[in-house]
Design goal:
The chain is an alpha/beta fold. It is built from twelve helices and 21 strands. It has helices at 13-16, 43-55, 86-89, 95-116, 138-153, 163-170, 189-198, 268-273, 314-328, 373-387, 393-401, 412-429, and strands at residues 32-33, 36-39, 61-64, 80-82, 126-128, 131-135, 159-161, 177-181, 184-187, 204-207, 212-218, 221-226, 229-233, 235-238, 255-264, 280-284, 291-294, 300-308, 337-347, 354-359, 362-366. The strands form four sheets. The chain has an eight-stranded mixed beta sheet with strand order 7-8-6-16-17-18-15-19. α2 runs parallel beside α10 (373-387). The longest helix has 22 residues, at 95-116. The structure holds flavin-adenine dinucleotide. Flavin-adenine dinucleotide (FAD) binds at residues 6, 39-45, 64-67, 72-74, 76-80, 211-212, 239-241, 243, 247, 259, 261, 303, 343, 345, 368, 370-373, 376.
Length: 430
């Protein structure tokens, strides 16, 4: 029997807070043929299906989802849409690569904005507030200094906060250095994804509970096996995030990592202790540290921790998240964590995403590297354009720079990950 939450132990808190009016979808009950198939109903797959449908209004597009809607990583994230990759930008010396990264994020944002700008409920899930970057260690402070220099060089507005100012604004003295930076939109990801699904063009047919278990390709097109049925199409976009290896689509360029998040219940007494602003978001300067958001109703969103390949048991997720929360907000009680969940992300060794043709009829997109709302939306849209043989500048540079490097197989892979995690842990205690 399929797990209610597809690949996960628990439901995403963002999705749990939504009213339960269903999204139109069917299940696969017979074999059939369509013009295009998109596999995976996250940000990537929805963007691809939408672009295919708009560009070919007479075609039929099947959007195939293994589980229920609104239960994937796209509704499990922290909701930061940062369209300037501040922290990565200095690690890539090539100016053209930097420009492409920024253009890609802008492209993703434009795709999403075109879908939400007319929505009267927009204000409840889309807030353009910028965000904080916080350092709790010496190494983190060095990163903050580097980012500050980049922002200065690029003449981007920012503010630097000391511990006392951070305490006033964020309600904690955990951070030794904090930067406020613009160009970040905070979203309620499940509301956003629901809106995107509900506004798909009519020629997109959404199928749930329809896990693809095998695929065959021929000159005529591609055939996907779903249960005892099969669906045939001329072309297929694979947008299945970290599940590529299960279908043998990509084994050597990406791996699957789980990270964890929780939402507290609305905490009246905390409204004040979480700082003066009605809402804010903070990402960490250190890779292993936590992401946080204060929501307007007095909830705290807290994301932390990683595990390789396998989701931790729920009790361990809860413990690791609570441990991080009380270091910052000692007055929060463990029973105030209302929703706790995990989500999988696809990680590549050099941070480059996957955008590759499997053959003439199939394209694979993945490698979000834990920040995929904008990136995977952009790649979904561009994958559809590529399948349709369209050409544009951003597509050309995406093909050029989406080159993830080789990751060795097990047991070397696990060893390398453990070495990296231990190194990062040491940095945290330095
Ligand atoms: C806790 C957490 C916090 C995060 N925070 C942020 C953030 O603040 N900002 C940000 O930009 N990103 C963030 N991310 C990353 C972001 O959520 C992902 O990059 C993004 O959702 C990936 O979208 P996707 O469409 O590629 O994949 P998914 O949303 O995972 O969708 C893939 C879909 O494919 C389906 N699928 C898989 N296999 C099959 C199959 N065989 N047949 C049919 N369907 C299949 C899955 O069921 C799933 O629905 C975070 C992720 C997590 C887990």
């Amino acid at each position: 029997m399929p797990n209610q939450f597809t690949h996960y132990h628990t439901q995403s808190g963002w999705a749990a807070l939504l009213p339960s009016n269903p999204i139109k979808a069917s299940t696969v009950t017979h074999s059939f043929e369509v013009d295009y198939i998109v596999v995976g109903a996250g940000f990537a797959g929805i963007a691809a299906a939408r672009e295919l449908a708009l560009a070919t209004p007479m075609a039929d597009i099947a959007l195939i989802e293994a589980g229920q809607l609104l239960q994937n990583s796209s509704t499990r994230n922290s909701g930061f849409m940062i369209d300037l990759p501040y922290t990565k930008i200095d690690q890539r010396s090539d100016v053209a690569v930097q420009k492409w990264q920024i253009d890609l994020m802008a492209h993703g944002r434009a795709c999403l904005w075109s879908q939400v700008k007319e929505d009267p409920e927009l204000a409840s899930y889309w807030t353009e507030v910028g965000h904080y970057k916080g350092a709790s260690t010496r190494i983190g402070s060095q990163t903050i200094q580097k980012i500050e220099q980049i922002l200065k060089d690029k003449q981007i507005d920012y503010k630097k906060l000391d511990t006392a100012q951070a305490q006033r604004l964020l309600g904690t003295n955990y951070y030794r250095d904090v930067l406020w930076m613009p160009r970040c939109t905070l979203v309620q990801p499940a509301v956003l994804l629901k809106r995107l699904l509900n506004t798909l063009p009519k020629n997109v047919h959404v199928f749930i509970d329809s896990k693809v278990t095998a695929t065959t390709s021929s000159a005529k097109g591609v055939q996907l096996k779903i249960g005892v049925h099969s669906i045939q199409a001329k072309k297929v976009v694979w947008a299945i995030n970290s599940h590529l290896a299960e279908l043998g689509l990509e084994r050597t360029k990406q791996l699957s990592v789980y990270t964890y998040a929780c939402l507290t219940e609305p905490i009246n007494s905390l409204q004040q202790s979480l700082g003066n602003a009605a809402f804010w978001g903070l990402t960490p300067a250190e890779q292993l540290e936590a992401t946080m958001r204060k929501l307007p109703d007095g909830r705290l969103l807290f994301r932390a921790g990683f595990s390789y390949k396998k989701e931790l048991p729920t009790i361990e997720q809860r413990n690791l998240l609570y441990e991080g929360i009380i270091k910052r907000y000692p007055s929060i009680r463990e029973d105030q964590l209302q929703f706790v969940w995990g989500g999988a992300v696809s990680i590549t060794r050099n941070g480059a995403p996957i955008f590759k043709r499997k053959n003439n009829n199939e394209i694979i997109i993945s490698g979000c590297n834990a920040s995929g709302i904008l990136k995977m939306t952009a790649l979904g849209d561009l994958a559809a354009a590529d399948i349709l043989n369209k050409r544009n500048k951003i597509l050309v540079s995406t093909k050029k720079y989406s080159k993830p490097s080789y990751i060795p197989p097990e047991p070397l892979r696990r060893l390398a990950i453990n070495i990296k995690i231990n190194k990062l842990k040491k940095e945290l205690s330095a």
